[in-house]
Design brief:
alpha/beta, five-stranded mixed β-sheet, LysR_HTH_N, D-Maltodextrin-Binding Protein, domain 2, 3 domains, Arc Repressor Mutant, subunit A, LysR-type_TF_proteobact-type, DNA-binding
Length: 305
C-alpha cells in the first residue's frame, strides 16, 4: 500500500467547491478561507498531480476535461476518507444527542420504524426525530442531519454513503397475468398494457436489462404514486403491471403467489439508496451509528426473502 498520497486530500474539497461554483471567490466564501489560500491550494494540487485542472481568464473559469474526471473521483475519495474518520470516532464514544432524519415515503413506514426502534433501543442516550417526506430534501437547507436519497451526488460539501440497492422487478397480480390475451414474452409488449409507475411525477423512460442487452421503454401510465405500498395495492387489484422491489415490499406476496413476475429475465436498473449528510458532520457518532443500524435492518430484510 502507498504510504504517502501525492496530493493533499483537503485540497480536493477546495477544488470540488471551485468546480461547483465556477468561482474562486464564491468557493472561498463558502469554505471560510481567503481567496489567496484557495488559489494556493489549487496551484499546489495541480503541481502535485502534474496536470492542469482549471483554465482561468478575466471573464470566466472553466474546468479541463481531465479536471472534470478528477472532480468525479474527488467526491468519492472525500466520502470514503470521512467514512473512515467517522468509524474511528464512533468507536471512541457512545452516540448521544438528537438526530433529525428525513426518509422518503417510498422507502416505507415498516423499514423506517424498524430502523428507528432498533437505533433507540441500542443507544439509550440518543434521541431521534424521523420525518417521512414525499419529495427530495436538502439536509442543510431543510434543517436535517441525515437525508435518505437516490441518484448521484453533485455537492462536495455533502457526504453520501450507500445504504442499500433496491433490486427491482416487473410484476402483476396473478389474475391480471392470467387474463392477458397472450403471455408477455417481449419488452415491446409492455407498451400496450396499463402501467403502474413509481415516481415523483412526469413521464420517464425505464431501462430493462438482460445479459449484455437493454431495452428502453416509455410506458403507458395508468396510475402513478411516490410510495411503493400504494403501487403494490394498485397492482394487486389488477390495475396494471408495475416495477416493485423485493427486499422491503413484496416478499410475502411473492411467496403466496398473489404477485407474479413479468419478464423475469429482464430487470429494471436497481435503485441506489444513499444516506446523505453535511461534510461538517463527518465525525458524528450518531450518524455513524444510524448508518450501521439502517444497513443491518435492510440485510435482515434481504435474508428473509
Amino acid at each position: 500500500m502507498e504510504q504517502n498520497l501525492p496530493f493533499d486530500i483537503d485540497a480536493l474539497l477546495v477544488f470540488g467547491k471551485v468546480v461547483e461554483n465556477r468561482s474562486l471567490s464564491k468557493a472561498a466564501t463558502l469554505l471560510g478561507m481567503p481567496k489567496s489560500t484557495v488559489s494556493r491550494k489549487l496551484a499546489r494540487l495541480e503541481a502535485d498531480l502534474g496536470i492542469k485542472l482549471l483554465r482561468k481568464n478575466t471573464r470566466q473559469l472553466t474546468v479541463t476535461d481531465l479536471g472534470e474526471k478528477v472532480y468525479a473521483h474527488a467526491v468519492n475519495i472525500l466520502t470514503e476518507a470521512n467514512g473512515v474518520r467517522a468509524l474511528v470516532e464512533s468507536s471512541r464514544q457512545e452516540p448521544r444527542g438528537e438526530l433529525r432524519v428525513a426518509i422518503p415515503v417510498f422507502v416505507g413506514i415498516d423499514y423506517a420504524s424498524r430502523v428507528g426502534a432498533a437505533f433507540l433501543a441500542r443507544y439509550p442516550n440518543s434521541r431521534l426525530d424521523i420525518r417521512l417526506v414525499d419529495s427530495m430534501v436538502d439536509p442543510i437547507r431543510d434543517g436535517f442531519d441525515v437525508v435518505f436519497g437516490t441518484g448521484p451526488l453533485q455537492d462536495s460539501t455533502l457526504i453520501a454513503r450507500k445504504v442499500f440497492d433496491l433490486e427491482l422487478f416487473l410484476c402483476a397480480s396473478a389474475e391480471f397475468a392470467a387474463a392477458l390475451q397472450e403471455p408477455i414474452t417481449d419488452p415491446a409488449q409492455l407498451r400496450s398494457v396499463p402501467f403502474i409507475d413509481f415516481g415523483f411525477g412526469g413521464p420517464r423512460r425505464i431501462t430493462l436489462r438482460r445479459d449484455s442487452g437493454h431495452y428502453e421503454l416509455t410506458p403507458s401510465v395508468r396510475a402513478r404514486a411516490n410510495n411503493f405500498q400504494v403501487c403494490k395495492q394498485y397492482i394487486l387489484q389488477g390495475l396494471g403491471i408495475g416495477v416493485m422491489p423485493t427486499q422491503i415490499i413484496c416478499t410475502d406476496e411473492l411467496r403466496a403467489g398473489t404477485l407474479v413476475p413479468v419478464l423475469p429475465h429482464w430487470r429494471p436498473d436497481a435503485l441506489d439508496v444513499h444516506m446523505i449528510y453535511p461534510f461538517e458532520l463527518s465525525f458524528s457518532t450518531l450518524i455513524s451509528a444510524f448508518y450501521e443500524t439502517a444497513r443491518e435492518i435492510i440485510l435482515e430484510n434481504i435474508a428473509r426473502i
